[in-house]
Amino acid sequence: MLLQAGFLYFATVIIFCALMVITRRNPVHSVLFMLPLFFHVAGIFVMLNAEFVAAVQVLVYAGAIMVLFLFVVMLLNVEREKIRERFQVKWFVTVPLGLTLAGFFVIILGRSSFTGTQGQYTIEAVKAMGNSQAVGQVLYTDFLFPFEIASIILLVAMVGAIVLAKKNLD
Amino acid sequence: MVPLSWYITLSALVFSIGVIGVLSRRNILIIFLSIELILNSVNISLCAFSHFLNSLRGQVFVFFIMAVAAAEAAIGLAIIIALYRNKETVITEEINIMKW
Asked: How far is CA B77 from CA A23, A26, A123, A161, B33, in A?
């Protein structure tokens, strides 16, 4: 009962903040509404016994990516955007398109049963060795090669961001 | 105990809101924020399946999605800054140099 009330609180705040993000006129407000959304998504992760992912969510999303977004929004001229129309001309086509997508989700999810093979990491097994250690064991054994690829992606992003945002390359 | 379908419904709702944001907004920064919304909704559903199937692979995938999202945000914001320096706008309808 308490868990369900907690989930409903987190879900309500997440959906409210998501709606605010896509409807605010000022981009700074949109970015600032993204912040509580990330924190409440981290709360959902804690409810799902994913403590390591929740900590990374707060550090990476709420810490790093949001600061990056805020910097860029402050660099650009937002005053000029305030007087403009915020939605596209064809919004009466695109918004029903998105609602149709949501309807498809409802139909498909209502017909699905969500069965699958159960893994070996039950809540008790994870609790015995700690969530971070369990995730780390899977990450560095089964997913070692994807992990290396992820580090190369981050390196490419670092070089690419510097190259793209620099004024002249010589 | 919260059933799995609640988490999946929340994920589907946030995904749809993100898709509507990508399709209907004109400011390219808000389109970027909507893409982050979509990625977060997928993270919620991956974590939910990982929890209900007693597997940790979903959480590892969330970790990879976060790494790719950080790279995507850095590259995308650099592109936006380069675009603003050349065209003085962040409105998608005014960026039509590739449009014939």
From this structure: 21, 17, 39, 8, 11
**DSSP annotation string for B33-44:** HHHHHHHHHHHH
With an 8 Å Cβ cutoff, is B42 touching chain A? no
| A170 min Cα distance to partner chain B (Å) | 16
* Model confidence at B1: pLDDT above 70: yes
Residues whose CB is less than 8 angstroms from the CB of residue A169 and which lie 6 or more positions away in sequence, other chains included: A163
The residue segments making up the domain with residue A77 are 1-87
Domain assignment present for B27? yes
Instruction: Report the residue from A7, A56, A76 with minimal CB separation from B6.
Output: A7
pLDDT digit string, tens, across residues B46-81: 999 999 998 889 999 999 999 999 999 999 999 998
pLDDT tens digits for A48-89?
999 999 999 999 999 999 999 998 888 886 666 666 677 777
Which range of residues forms the domain containing residue B69? 4-94
Q: Answer whether residue A138 is part of any domain.
A: yes
Residue B5 sits at the chain A interface (C-beta within 8 Å): yes
- Mean pLDDT, rounded, of chain B: 90
Q: How far is A118 from chain B (nearest CA, A)?
A: 5
Looking at the structure, do residues A82 and A19 belong to the same domain, yes or no?
Answer: yes
Does the beta carbon of B83 lie under 8 angstroms from any beta carbon of chain A?
no
Please tell me the pTM assigned to this model: 0.90
Residue A155 domain-assigned (yes or no): yes
